[in-house]
Design brief:
homodimer, Farnesyl Diphosphate Synthase, 2 strands, mainly alpha, two-stranded antiparallel ribbon
């Protein structure tokens, strides 16, 4: 196993354990909504966002213990957004990560509440006395504020609204970029910045983490669009050319394949360059950016 | 105008102004979700929860400025819960406070996002630098934590789930009480406790505020049930005997009218008694409890 894979596994394991501890099975009157939250939160996602939080905390000289509640909070927000996104009134997706979507299993009403519960629990995790005792009130406030801002109407929720309004329409490149920066970049940015904050990193480090995150997030999205055109359906695990069929505006449709590839490469480079602001060992984060840039699924 | 009405108007005006400042109209790509949030947040609700926050802050010797962000945060949570509750997959209510429900005007997808946006903004309001500069990081953390806990699966969201699971079923009194304590009491409790916290109140004061809140919340619910049987539809502004028609378990159906009345009166008394823990002038909060106990709509 490479050093990268070794660290990845270590981060992921820490996140799985902590997430599972936050929402324990409970024989209470409202146990259905707790089961629904666990169903989506503990479903073996890749945990990219919480890994970023842990890696940036380590890079700034902090401990895993300091960053774990922040890392889990980001994953709770990500998970709630997937549950709400899959609902019939949004994308109406009946499958997620190879399993029936939350509302298919638990019903729309409980799925809606499970999303609300996870969104709320994210803040509970950051602000609860144990966390504050470990990282101090100042850092807890700063982290939770960034998370709220980046997840809100001028962040993730705003991006989802732009997505709703762009459906089936021709949109300019600028709108596509704003949408993706809000919809995907904002939460990745929160993940990275909160890692620095957990460790007591400087404002410059938080800014550099944000730069890394936004470049990474956008590169990720562009590569998604490229793979939809050039990918192998077997390797991707989903059908290709779906954007073309649904007449969706993408980086490929707006820029062409070549320019889209160049843009993704330059963004990966930008992400890697942002890591130069840190004195610590940034090899993991560098490799993560490069791997996302080269991925085939 | 009585002194009570005078204070009520002053509190309400402060809340309206601040709420409106939090979500300003904005000509951005996602302006629809911002409009949807404003539509429900600024619709002239009674503002009982934020008034409680302001009154408890004042009672503990704090200023309006310290409590206003907390007060607005509670109202944002209350409003998001109404938007999500009205959705077709929940209660499917097409009217709210005499206006079409959020999803009727903006569509289900935007209404869902408006709820998510308001829930997220509640934490942004408490944790943003302006608020923290005014009340300090310790109080902001404590207040936001209480709000998250009381709004979550062991609070409001949990109560809504119990409600879903009780629909059309005979439930024991204990379940009904737990449901109402979670569904209504928890957020009222957060409102009262956050007021004390804004002012730097003691743990004893926070506990007394919680006692007041839970008694008030339950009394409110019992009186709702009583009015559904004894009320005048003209004064109530809604049809009566709706619980009986839908075979809903209520305090009246489980206890009988007389015992329900006695329980409500003893809870109002309990709320008033909890105010004795405070040295300050608690007349407003006392009158609020008594008025809620005597209300006819």
């Amino acid at each position: 196993m490479s050093q990268y894979e070794d660290r990845q596994r270590k981060f992921q394991q820490a996140v799985e354990n902590k997430l599972s501890a936050y929402i324990q099975e409970d024989k209470v009157l409202q146990s259905d909504v707790i089961d629904a939250m666990r169903y989506s939160l503990l479903d073996g996602g890749k945990r990219i966002r919480p890994m970023l939080t842990l890696a940036f905390c380590e890079l700034c000289g902090g401990t895993e213990e300091q960053a774990l509640p922040f890392a889990c909070a980001v994953e709770m927000i990500h998970t709630y957004s997937l549950i709400h996104d899959d609902l019939p009134c949004m994308d109406n997706d009946t499958m997620r990560r190879g399993k029936p979507s939350n509302h298919v299993v638990f019903g729309e009403d409980t799925a809606l509440l499970a999303g609300d519960g996870l969104l709320t629990m994210a803040f509970e995790a950051i602000l609860q006395p144990d966390t504050v005792a470990c990282c101090g009130a100042e850092r807890a406030v700063r982290a939770a504020y960034i998370l709220a801002r980046e997840a809100g109407v001028y962040g993730m929720v705003g991006g989802q609204q732009i997505d709703l309004m762009s459906e089936g329409r021709q949109i300019p490149l600028e709108t596509l970029r704003t949408m993706d920066e809000y919809k995907t970049g904002a939460l990745i940015s929160a993940a990275c910045c909160m890692g620095c904050i957990a460790a007591g990193g400087s404002d410059e480090q938080v800014s550099a983490a944000r730069e890394y995150a936004l470049a990474l997030g956008l590169a990720f999205q562009i590569i998604d669009d490229i793979l939809d055109v050039t990918g192998d359906p077997e390797v991707l695990g989903k059908p290709v050319l779906s954007d073309q069929k649904s007449k969706k505006c993408t980086y490929v449709s707006l820029l062409g394949l070549d320019s889209a590839r160049k843009l993704a490469a330059s963004l990966t480079e930008k992400a890697v360059k942002a890591l130069e602001s840190f004195d610590g060992d940034s090899r993991f984060l560098k490799e993560l950016a490069v791997k996302l840039g080269e991925r085939e699924n």
